[in-house]
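Q: My collaborator sent me two sequences in one message, no labels, and asked for predicted structures for both. Can we handle them in order? The first one she listed is below.
A: Yes, handling them in the order given. First sequence, followed by its structure tokens:
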Amino acid sequence: MKALSPLILFLLLYLATSIIAQDFYKVPIAVAFLISAIYALFTIKGSMAKRIEIFAGGAGSPTMVLMLSIFILAGAFAASAKTMGAVDATVSLALKYLPEQALLPGIFLASCFISLSIGTSCGTIAALTPLAAGIAQQSGISLPLMVGLVVGGTYFGDNLSFISDTTIAATQTQGCSMRDKFRVNIRIVAPVALLMLVLYFLLGKDAHVPSEIAAANPWLILPYLTIVILAICGMNVLIVLAIGIILTGIIGISAGTYDFFGWLSAMNEGMMGMSELIIVTILAGGMLEVIRHNGGIQLIIKAITRNIHSARGGEFSIAALTCLVNICTANNTVAIITAGPIAKDIATRFHIDSRRSASILDTASCFTQGLLPYGAQVLIAAGLSGLNPIAIIPHLYYPMLIGVALVLAICFRHRTKA
């Protein structure tokens, strides 16, 4: 039990105190990890230099450094693209060319595309929720339905985007490429997305598009399209992000949305915005390495897989572990970072393809996060729309259905093609 005590301490510090405070954002998750990481050092026998060496080995592993590098570039790209007006342009173009009967599926598609492009559900929700609320008011569509549509659609991109922190964490902890994970993952969620388009078309056939739509420069969405296409083609994600950042500079400065120094400022803002995630990743990586050194990972694997004797059971155990950690942390990226190394060991033991384990990690975390009334995404949407978070939950059809799709994908699992 001593080997797992750092993880138990973290759960007590973060989960228990958050429940007592009735606010999952009252306790900074980085501070909870910091205290737990410091405590973890004292669970190792030997000199302090040796203890720090073990911790640093996990915090500064090649996989961890690569993940952090991607986080930094992803933050720079997302912020520079948003600052130059790419998000607003995408929304305006979607509304401009949508027929009235396709308003709901069109907004859902816009939510999917923006989140796929910028790699963040929170950013997409912040951009689209005020617009969705305004459209609901003008068209007579149910406000909770419209907000739930936006929030649900963002998990399509959060689950699949090449610059999403969940995708980065899932692929890096499982040791597979983003392109290969995308190919496996899209088979699980694409049928759900198509089903949602049909459902929203039926629900919104009597809706009306607002008469006044802001003009948009179509060139502003080029960086988004470029990174999606290049990433799908298999180009290294660091190079893809670098190209995307350069494009935002060229297009943004040419269009006059910012000057050279404004571009640099936007990149800096984006990188700084990733600071908490970077800190949490470093601390979690070091703490989990200490737990592994003390034999804690093997204890967890043994407990989870005690009655598991097949690859299918191993996949269910990975999904269950991810959901449990996500419920405790209310953060799907942190859940993947925490559960990822354990999932990798389970996948190795039961000969589960790394692409499938990465897809299961990401999809299970998005399913869980999407239905948490105390999750950041639902809270942001509730705050911007004036709704109670509980009122939004019943309308989060997409997160619900990707959970069902994941269960079916595991039940009827097939050999992943190379």
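Q: And the one she listed second?
A: Here it is, processed independently of the first:
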Amino acid sequence: MDSKPSRRETTHERIVEVAARALRRNGYNGIGVADVMQQAGLTHGGFYAHFASRDALLAEAIERAGRDSAAEMDRRIQASQARGHSALRALVNAYLSEAHLQGVEGGCVVAALSSEMPRQSPTLLAPSTDRVRGLVEMVQRALPEGGTPEQAMVIAATLVGTLQLARTLGTPTQGKAMLAAARNALLSQYDPT
């Protein structure tokens, strides 16, 4: 029998969900406790009933953002595989898609935050590096038999870097062109079928 989450657990999850979106949108330094609590429909005073510190909230938000974006990526990959694509082709197409280009709040937390990750406290660095490792592992699982960990690292770095640069270009046309170029290069090298 499944137990229904308590009101406190539901509230906690709502705060983490709001923080995960805000983290991807604004970066580590663009999140204030008061803003997160307000967006969650709560008062600032209730924050410490749920979290010991701002870093504790952000650590949970990083983990939540990673789980959410991985689940969304898995959903897109499965849909693409259902249309007959290999796992790698499905992953590359989903990650370097127009939807992911525009979907910062719901997209990959690694692409949203990787340039900021190394400068964070140990409390935030640990879940951040876990997210990077998770992305590399997702790519490794998608590689055809015989794919190496080194290939997975190169592909993951290309995916993240391409998405970041495409978002930076300023126009959808230029961003889409960069995504297409990287998709073609990756697939011609690693999945030429």
